[in-house]
Amino acid sequence: MFASILTFIIVLSILVLVHEFGHYIVAKKSGILVEEFGLGLPFAPKIFGKKIGETTYSIYPVLFGGFVRLHGELTEDGVTDHKRAFINQKSFTKVKVITAGVIMNLILGIVCFSIIYSVQGIPKPGNNVTIIDVAPGTPASDAQLPKNSIVKKVNYVEVTSEKLFIEEVAKFKGSEISLTLLPENSEESKVFKITPRSEYPEGQGPLGIVISTPYETYFPPIWQRPFLGVYYGFQEAFFWGSSIALSLFELIKNLFSGIVPKGLAGPAGLYVITDETRKAGILPLISLLGVVSINLAILNILPIPALDGGRLLFILIEKLFGRKIVPKVEAAIHGVAMVILVGLMVLVTIKEVITIRRVGFSGYLNEVMMSGE
Q: Looking at the domain that runs over 127-213, which CATH code has it been given?
């Protein structure tokens, strides 16, 4: 239990500290007075606080978040240094400070994926073309081509790519050809006679099979791995970012359609997922950290008050209409939105705890996975 809680706190702390450090360092570099750098939400008295220079570094008991308190962040109430107050900065400076947290989470995700690829190897397309499915009522089905078999030759031509295989088969539409295949779990190749169709349904090919070229893993020289790791880390981050953005779009669309969202993971759900991932080892945990960091970046950039995207939205509105929004009004909107978000988080957490007590950790994971299908 102690290891589970400690791992969860470490993962959560890394995510929050990296995000808030982005705000912190850009604010400092921009000459803005940073009053406090806090880990946790300030809904209860701080359990630790130390002032170093002009900034207080603190820890609060509610560890589901963090913050950087900037001088004059939302209003001019209590401002003593107008030149260094956030509210008096130019729009471009504000945008830099606000987006820095999101950028840092994206960078963390890329770093995590880069570590995974650097350690576990770099993927590359293999040379084996594999039959992964055979459609019924097709030449492939009639010829009884075995699934998961490797295509070695089309007639006498050795197959080294999907493109070559497709081109060779296309040359002999309406004529019988010989396919040399290596069936799964077999050491001997077999030859199959088959006649490619000249006409076939949409979505099928002349043979009626689905082919794939499985990726292989290779380990380049040590000095190359960090560079290749970063390259593939970018690709992995883009993949997860796109997937998360599409999921959020579907979620919002369903909400407007009156469909109750399922498969949402709050703090309790993240604890369960982190604990199960911890049991699999350090690399899966690093991968999870990368995925959650990308998720956090995308959630934070949404144009919702109290989030970074909401702050950017107000700056955009000011630019479009050429009028400054009354600071106290903006502050009130962010405050109300924060209360709503925290309230939703509490409700999701209560629901998750009830589910976990009812079905256990593994049952909860199964419910989340099934609801996300």
A: 2.30.42.10
